[in-house]
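ok trying again, last paste got cut off:
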Amino acid sequence: MGFFKSKPEKIERISKLRPDQENLFSQYLQALGGQGAGGAFGDVADYYRGLMSGQGSEAFEAPLMRQFQEDIMPSIAEQFAGLGAGGLSSGGFAQETGRAATDLSERLAQLRASLRSQGAQGLQGLTGQAFGQMDETLFRPRQPGVLESFGTAAAGGIGKGLGTALGGPLSSLFSSFLKK
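nice, full thing came through this time. structure:
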């Protein structure tokens, strides 16, 4: 019976992705949805989230702290120890260590801000890719059924045939009426 019925117009959304890509895209969206999604996309998204929240910054801060404790502080102590008695307890030593600590603090703050910025940029890049158009919208016009198509064609043919058959006699009748 469906063969004879017309099909209504409809709008379809067709994915541009192959079936194997659909699965990866689904994992990608899950990774953007929240922490711990797993997989390559989830791990990358979790890494960027961690940078934004400050987690893991210890690994980046450790070399600066080690340099401060092993190189900078001993160097300052050597300078003031060479001044003789009271050099390490002098106000100059306290000021110099204070400056070094402030410098370290500023460098660590700059490092944290940079890591947060990189995390935000990374997540933004992942999100931007997810919002790309992954499907296409198609408009399918109404399709008449077989009976409707046949009926339309038959009606047109009958109309044309009647017009031709009746056109001549009606035309001469009309012309004779106008002549009178």
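cool. The helical segments are 19-33, 39-53, 57-81, 91-130, 146-179. The mean pLDDT is 75.
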